[in-house]
């Protein structure tokens, strides 16, 4: 089958003829119809994720059709989505419904061959295959597999967002734009900060108040701009990008007893965590990591009902060869914004 692969971190990406994925006991093979190009793929390619196995076929946010599932014959032919954290279904966390932090988790595109390929293997199919309603089409499904599911869980289950609250979204990439759409749908007032004017235009079209960041702005300066608009601070901040400055800005922009959710990977760690503020203002600093398969139904229902429109965030459908060109440039400030998907059949 055709797949996109790299052999070393930061090395060239090439479309190759790869071996067919291996069907494990209890697993499934999914024929990929759409797969998202995500900043996490760039982090993996850079070698920021110590679990990434070489050579690597990236890709972790996919939808497709089940072609083989010996233990679940009824699902063959079904359209599915798969959480990027593929859970074991047997450990204590999985037992508690928290497969997104499964201790035996596997991730396509990192620990396992990913979905920038015609077909992909999914372990523990009974746990990790989420059948899709007909009304949730391929573009929507691929766009929600990682980024919208992550934002949904971060804002609802982790931050406990309530209607009428003020939400600050830092970084208006895929996760950030999804967070804006979700927060607005839940009746929140949203402010979005980004360095890209293009990203802010999309954020504004989704109902966010834009804040234009400039190169070199620190956490205190960004938080100062937010407080210029919300004197008491925001109820919830979400760092969707993962930078020390944005994470600090998120914490410093909170009202007393506010909640900061860290979703973006802080590859370089925290530059300076405003610890004094966290203690004195009783701030909650929360991590959020994907979403378990069992938590997808309310999100899928919101998409099916038209309350959320993940397909509306999609700006481009790429071929595998185009993705090989696009992936290395994802972290550049002028990289195209919005959600880009790949159709490996093209
Ligand atoms: Zn992703
Ligand atoms: Zn587990």
UniProtKB/TrEMBL annotation:
| SMART domains for the chain | PKS_ER
Which controlled-vocabulary keywords does the entry list?
Answer: Oxidoreductase
Keyword Ubl conjugation among record annotations: no
Q: Which SUPFAM superfamilies match?
A: GroES-like, NAD(P)-binding Rossmann-fold domains
Coiled-coil region(s) at which residues? none
Q: What are its cofactors?
A: Zn(2+)
Q: Does the keyword Oxidoreductase apply?
A: yes
* Domain called Enoyl reductase (ER): residue spans: 10-335
- Report the protein name in the record: Zinc-dependent alcohol dehydrogenase family protein
Which organism encodes this protein? Nostocoides veronense
């Amino acid at each position: 089958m055709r797949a996109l692969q790299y052999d070393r971190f930061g090395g060239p990406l090439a479309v190759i003829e790869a071996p067919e994925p291996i069907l494990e006991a209890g697993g499934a093979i999914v024929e990929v119809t759409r797969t998202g190009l995500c900043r996490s793929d760039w982090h993996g390619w850079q070698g920021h994720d110590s679990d990434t196995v070489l050579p690597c076929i990236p890709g972790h946010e996919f939808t497709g059709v089940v072609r083989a599932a010996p233990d679940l014959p009824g699902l063959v032919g079904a359209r599915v989505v798969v959480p990027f954290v593929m859970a074991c279904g047997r450990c204590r966390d999985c037992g508690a419904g928290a497969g997104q932090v499964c201790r035996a988790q596997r991730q396509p595109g990192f620990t396992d061959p990913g979905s920038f390929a015609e077909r992909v293997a999914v372990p523990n199919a009974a746990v990790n295959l989420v059948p899709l309603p007909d009304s949730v089409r391929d573009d929507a499904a691929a766009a929600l597999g990682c980024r919208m599911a992550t934002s949904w869980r971060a804002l609802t289950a982790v931050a406990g967002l309530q209607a009428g609250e003020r939400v600050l979204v830092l970084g208006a990439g895929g996760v950030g734009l999804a967070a804006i759409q979700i927060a607005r749908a839940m009746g929140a007032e949203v402010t979005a900060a980004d360095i890209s004017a293009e990203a802010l235009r999309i954020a504004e079209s989704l109902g966010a108040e834009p804040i234009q960041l400039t190169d070199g702005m620190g956490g205190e300066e960004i938080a100062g701009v937010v407080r210029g608009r919300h004197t008491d601070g925001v109820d919830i901040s979400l760092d969707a990008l993962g930078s020390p400055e944005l994470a600090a800005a998120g914490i410093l922009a909170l009202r007393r007893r506010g909640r900061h959710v860290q979703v973006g990977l802080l590859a370089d760690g925290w530059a300076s965590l405003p610890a004094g503020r966290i203690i004195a203002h009783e701030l909650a600093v929360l991590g959020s990591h994907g979403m378990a398969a069992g938590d997808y139904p309310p999100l899928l229902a919101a998409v099916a009902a038209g309350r959320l429109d993940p397909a509306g965030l999609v700006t481009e459908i790429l071929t595998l060869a185009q993705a090989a060109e696009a992936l290395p440039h994802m972290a550049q400030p002028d990289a195209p914004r919005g959600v880009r998907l790949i159709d490996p059949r093209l």
